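Late entry, written up from scratch paper. The run itself happened at the end of the previous shift, but nothing got recorded in the book at the time, so transcribing now.
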Amino acid sequence: MYNNRFKDNNEYRTKINEHRPLSEDALKQIKEYYKIGLTYASNAIEGNTLNLAETKVVLEDGITIGGKSLKEHYEAIGHAKAFDKIVELSQNAIFTEEDIKSLHKLFYNQIDEVNAGKYRTSQVIITGSDVELPKPEELNAKMAEFVNSLPHLKETLHPVEYAAMVHIIFVNIHPFLDGNGRVARLLMNLALLQSGYNIVVIPPVVRADYISALQDSNHGDYVPFVNFISEMVLESQKEYLKIISRF
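Output as recorded:
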């Protein structure tokens, strides 16, 4: 059972802000740490078998891991590029539809160049879900509506709830043929960064809880997912505070 931790999120945000600004060297080290951690975890949730150490080797040394598919390597490399993009975009107040396409293209280009950064042209079904996704001809309107709603959502919701809702709305549109989950988590983190929070990593060990809460949101019950994300943000904040306290 996950609880709403907005109050704790606020308190830890204050503690973290007391350590700012960080040095350029510290920021660089922290960025690389979370790039590897988020890339590993987000890919692992989708079935990628590269472990944390292997992901680090692929990204830092460019070494191919024996027994792993090229697709798994491409997912790691592409996700790392998309991570760099969200750090860049975090300087903006909000993100655009073109930003979303750019993130997907960076992640997916080596896997499927034809469909990278382009909305799907066929209907897809999410395994285990009874929710009907928007038809291809509805995607442009749905995505425009989503992006246009961001300023209002950001203004009216707690930053953590805002980030969770970004994830929910995007993944329920499911605009791309593949890679929607990873882009949803990237966008959620981008929303957090743009609100002054740090990166949140969802550990693969809680994958079942994550999926269950997300499935509840498919039927309009957003509370379990928002609470889940607030707990994940809190754990990430605790870790982040420990890291920056060493500098």
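The domain at 6-117+129-244 is CATH 1.10.3290.10 (Fic-like fold).
(Scratch paper discarded after transcription.)
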